[in-house]
Amino acid sequence: MGKGALMTGRLLRADKLWKNYGTHAVVKGISFSLCGGEIVGLVGPNGAGKTTTVSMLYGAVVPDKGQSLLGPWNMQREGHEARRRLGIVTQEDNLDPDLTAAENLRFFMHHYRIGRKKAAQKTATLLARVGLEAFADYAVDELSGGLKRRLVLARALVNDPEFLFLDEPTTGLDPEARQAFWKLIAELRLDGRGILLTTHYMEESERLCDRLLLLKDGSVVDQGKPAELIARVAGERVIEIEGIAEDRIRHFLPHPLPWIRPLGAGFAFDASSNEVSMHARELEEQKPRRFVRRQANLDDVFFLLTGDKLE
């Protein structure tokens, strides 16, 4: 399918979504939109409200307040019509272990009333799309974790959706399998599909997403393009240091220091300004156990905004 082939001008919208479990609010007034050809990331630690937000957007969870909309369709009132245009990759593989890879896809096609001949053609096309053509007759339990995730993605594409929901799709995968999955996601965006990605992996969100919403305790604490967020919140350059107490670090650096935070067994601080960078040379001369200069990243951003760290 060529670039932009699915772009219809429809918009997926979360409109002031709230969800309570008992007296605890797990999602608090979240609003955002997603259009075709765009990847929007919901980033945050476990318990931030990512999965509940996504579940409300595709109708699996009913919001206590607010609404989710796909174009003119309200997900709570017209969910059947809206879900015809959605594909969903949940955190769990939930594949049928008694069926082969190809049989899992063909069985799922029954829900969309796809005939046997067309289902066979579509199965072959989808398996090739995700690099599983050689595994068509493998039982699910014979597939690696990375291959199972590809099969779940292929299943989500059965109805040729305009929008994809990917809920922490690479959790538990090794780095090689994760990067292969990233490539598939990037290719799907080129089709013109809108993709909503929840993740707690810093590199994943920075590499894939056009925009990010950073969540903490059910609320959006900041949002923007990854590079813009990093520059605005964390600066340009960071120094990591171990083996010197915080008060000694501050003694050598100019005041006020834009920010300094705990990091592992040491600290990280903003070294974007030439003045801080120059004074940091004196710190380096104190022979700390570790001294590293690097670019600021989303881990810095999230810690500064929430006090947490991304995985």
Radius of gyration: 23 Å
Class by SSE composition: alpha/beta
Main β-sheet, spatial strand arrangement: 6-7-8-3-9-10
Task: Report the portion of residues in β strands.
Answer: 25-35%
H-E string: EEEHEEHEHHHEHEHEEHEHEEHEH
Oligomeric form of this entry?
A: single chain
- Percent in helix: 25-40%
Major sheet summary line: 6 strands, mixed
Number of continuous helical runs: 11
Tell me the distance between the termini. Answer: 35 Å
Q: Can you tell me the overall shape?
A: elongated
Total count of strands:
14
Mind explaining what this structure looks like?
The protein is α/β, with parallel strands linked by helices. It is 34% helix and 27% strand. It contains eleven helices and 14 strands. It has helices at residues 50-57, 79-83, 101-109, 116-129, 145-156, 175-190, 202-208, 226-234, 246-252, 274-284, 298-306, and strands at residues 11-21, 24-35, 39-43, 65-70, 73-74, 86-89, 163-167, 194-199, 211-216, 219-224, 237-242, 260-263, 266-270, 290-295. The strands form three sheets. Strands 6-7-8-3-9-10 form a six-stranded mixed β-sheet, sandwiched between helices. Strands 2-1-4-5 form a four-stranded antiparallel β-sheet. Helix 3 (101-109) crosses helix 4 and helix 8 packs across helix 11. The radius of gyration is 23 Å and the shape is elongated. The model is unreliable at 1-7 (pLDDT under 50).
